[in-house]
């Protein structure tokens, strides 16, 4: 057999492979765009979908906007306004820092950006493919070669609109798998629900090309908090269906653990039996330092406690917003930032579980007392 030589992959192939890690589906692209809008200080985020986000995913925000001078490199890999030296990672408070999301999206779709900074009188439109600024599809091909000229001044309002069109147009197998399944709108709504619960100061709206009415609206109300958001989203179930879980404690005499959460009570299980599917689909929401993450260990332990104490087979509804000092959390273990690692995991989990147990035991006692009366 002929020996196989080791060759270096071309830059284009490397980028496409890396893009696939960050952007696995329309909802993962949306997560990145929402996080960028939140990082930009937005209080209004509107999402518009065509064909479950596959034909187009549009996010409009009222954040700080992107400066004209930054537009040529917006979709270049590893370009970010949020991190400049490695040590900044220890205390990072923004969602983004890798400068990878827009670049990755541009390798698997066509991006159009319209943006206007606050205080500016004019907006700019720019289009991107494969990490680069490209000529606008509406421009005359012969005339404009220069980067600066590819950016078109437009009438706009402060904030940013990003359109992602024809996602996975150059990845036929992925494209096919999404054409078959029509679960993506639900996945998108799950992401929006989670971020709107954890960001009650922000208005969220989701619309779909084929539908007249919005799929989702969450309006800001004065002093809104996450529990109110949950009530707004799952109205019929929520009345008297949740318990507040709050923790504020020093762990191992060295750092502060803060947790704000909403967890379901006995009432919830009675109501949810013949219920709406939405609440079952988004029934475990975990934010660590404002990042939406997955953590099977926490989920399994919580389900076990519910089984033991409330004797229920159904999955509880859990929303946890865990705040730890940034230096205790490593967010840099996966490009999609879906998983995070934290120091003293066992101690932290034990603290959360003990508090949850006490909360549920007290609830059980009160429920029994009420029944006796
Ligand atoms: P990261 O978020 O890791 O910095 P991204 O590729 O997601 O990387 O975004 C690159 C840069 O583009 C950001 O650092 C930010 O400066 C800018 N940007 C992206 N989206 C927005 C937005 N909606 N509003 C303002 N700036 C944005
Ligand atoms: Mg980002």
Condensed summary:
The protein has 373 residues and is α+β, with helices and mostly antiparallel strands. The protein has helices at 11-22, 26-39, 101-108, 147-150, 172-180, 184-198, 226-233, 235-238, 266-272, 278-281, 296-310, 345-372, and strands spanning 44-50, 56-61, 110-116, 123-129, 132-134, 152-154, 159-165, 203-208, 216-218, 242-251, 255-264, 284-288, 291-293, 318-323, 329-330, 341-342.
List the topology elements.
Layout: H1 11-22, H2 26-39, E1 44-50, E2 56-61, H3 101-108, E3 110-116, E4 123-129, E5 132-134, H4 147-150, E6 152-154, E7 159-165, H5 172-180, H6 184-198, E8 203-208, E9 216-218, H7 226-233, H8 235-238, E10 242-251, E11 255-264, H9 266-272, H10 278-281, E12 284-288, E13 291-293, H11 296-310, E14 318-323, E15 329-330, E16 341-342, H12 345-372
Parallel strand pairs: 1-8, 12-14
Antiparallel strand pairs: 1-2, 2-7, 3-4, 3-7, 4-5, 4-6, 8-9, 10-11, 11-14, 12-13, 15-16
Helix pairs in contact: 1-3, 2-6, 6-7, 11-12
The structure holds adenosine-5'-diphosphate and magnesium ion.
Residues 32, 36-37, 40, 61, 63-66, 74, 80-82, 96-103, 160 line the site of adenosine-5'-diphosphate.
